[in-house]
């Protein structure tokens, strides 16, 4: 179908841009021998898993349902990490995943031997207590009091006996200089254990497909761990897979004024792009500028009852009006996986764009709202 036939709101994933990202990741795999997994927590559009599986080594999960999705829809390597596993789900997780990352000494003592008896590879998530983030405390696993990972003082010979891999995940939308700093801290704190391991997982948060990302430095980090310790190196990017590969199409429902111009959209920050409020951040908007950069500035907001359901202030070359379509960019990641039906809001359609042809992959209606309640 044609773009003008779509109904709003809808997420549009652009196949060409997705494949461009995947080619970058595949080239990194081929040049270093590392293994790259899709972090499903950022992008779980499983209709594209066969395509993604042509470029990557598999998937990584944060719980049972993601583990099932990765196993059923991609069927390649399947890794999992959770801060704590539910006992009644663990046998099924063992049947689905080859690498099981355990978070704490208690979880290791509870599950390590079961993982080994099942012929799977147990790992430990460590906390190098090395924070490289600025301004995003909610996404900082190295913040004081973090529940994510075990600190070096808690490791013992008994605890690490039989553990085959070390996992750390400390980055969020960052470049490889921060990885290099973190990796240095991992070596300083956990270097005694590294020669005894089979693999190391650098986690996610690597913006590998961003235009200014320093891939050469990343390659040096990978090769260093391979050559120094003989480790198989895993990366599990989520955002980098679908970065800038999707948009969110929305319609202006109404405009008003209250000291500033306001436009009410059929898209909600709270429901359809929650990271706008959680991080927070201002998503890019096609053909729009910063406030007052262009002649007409509007505050774009959602239709829910939440007073703070505000996407941001944008300027335009003309006064936008009801019925006009706007297109938010970089909307493939952390949108479909986090959206909700607060206020009975309709979930956006999921659309695939391939060389100018638009295919609706999934549509949602009243039933999705009602079944959750």
Automatic annotation (TrEMBL):
<dbReference type="InterPro" id="IPR022643">
    <property type="entry name" value="De-COase2_C"/>
</dbReference>
<keyword id="KW-0210">Decarboxylase</keyword>
<feature type="domain" description="Orn/DAP/Arg decarboxylase 2 C-terminal">
    <location>
        <begin position="140"/>
        <end position="331"/>
    </location>
</feature>
<dbReference type="InterPro" id="IPR009006">
    <property type="entry name" value="Ala_racemase/Decarboxylase_C"/>
</dbReference>
<keyword id="KW-0663">Pyridoxal phosphate</keyword>
<keyword id="KW-0456">Lyase</keyword>
<dbReference type="Pfam" id="PF00278">
    <property type="entry name" value="Orn_DAP_Arg_deC"/>
</dbReference>
<dbReference type="InterPro" id="IPR029066">
    <property type="entry name" value="PLP-binding_barrel"/>
</dbReference>
<keyword id="KW-0745">Spermidine biosynthesis</keyword>
<dbReference type="GO" id="GO:0016829">
    <property type="term" value="F:lyase activity"/>
</dbReference>
<dbReference type="InterPro" id="IPR005730">
    <property type="entry name" value="Nsp_de-COase"/>
</dbReference>
<protein>
    <submittedName>
        <fullName>Carboxynorspermidine decarboxylase</fullName>
        <ecNumber>4.1.1.96</ecNumber>
    </submittedName>
</protein>
């Amino acid at each position: 179908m044609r773009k003008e036939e779509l109904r709003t709101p809808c997420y549009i994933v652009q196949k060409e841009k997705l494949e461009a990202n995947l080619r970058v990741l595949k080239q990194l795999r081929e040049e270093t021998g590392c293994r790259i997994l899709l972090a499903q927590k950022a992008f779980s559009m499983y209709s594209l898993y066969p395509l993604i599986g042509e470029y990557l080594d598999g998937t990584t999960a944060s719980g049972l349902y993601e583990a099932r999705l990765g196993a059923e829809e991609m069927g390649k390597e399947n890794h999992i990490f959770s801060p704590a596993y539910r006992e009644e789900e663990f046998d099924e997780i063992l049947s689905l995943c080859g690498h099981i990352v355990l978070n704490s000494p208690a979880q290791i003592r509870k599950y390590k031997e079961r993982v080994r008896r099942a012929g799977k590879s147990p790992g430990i998530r460590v906390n190098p207590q090395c924070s490289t983030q600025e301004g995003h405390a909610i996404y900082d696993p190295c913040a004081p009091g973090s529940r994510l990972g075990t600190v070096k003082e808690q490791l013992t010979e008994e605890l690490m006996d039989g553990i085959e891999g070390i996992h750390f995940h400390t980055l969020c939308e960052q470049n490889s200089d921060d990885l290099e700093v973190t990796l240095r801290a991992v070596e300083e704190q956990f270097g005694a254990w590294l020669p005894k391991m089979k693999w190391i997982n650098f986690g996610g948060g690597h913006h590998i497909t961003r235009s200014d990302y320093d891939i050469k430095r990343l390659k040096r980090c990978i090769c260093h761990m391979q050559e120094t310790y003989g480790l198989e190196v895993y990366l599990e990017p989520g955002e980098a897979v679908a970065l800038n590969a999707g948009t969110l199409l929305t319609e202006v429902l109404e405009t008003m004024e209250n000291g500033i111009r306001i436009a009410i959209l059929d898209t909600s920050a709270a429901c359809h792009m929650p990271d706008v409020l959680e991080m927070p951040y201002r998503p890019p908007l096609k053909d729009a500028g910063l406030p007052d950069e262009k002649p007409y500035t509007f505050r774009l907001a959602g239709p829910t009852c939440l007073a703070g359901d505000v996407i941001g202030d944008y300027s335009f070359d003309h006064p936008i009006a009801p019925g006009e379509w706007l297109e938010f960019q970089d909307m493939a990641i952390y949108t479909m996986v986090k959206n909700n039906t607060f206020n009975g809001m309709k979930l956006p359609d999921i659309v695939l764009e391939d060389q100018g042809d638009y295919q609706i992959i999934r549509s949602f209606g009243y039933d999705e709202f009602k079944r959750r309640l």
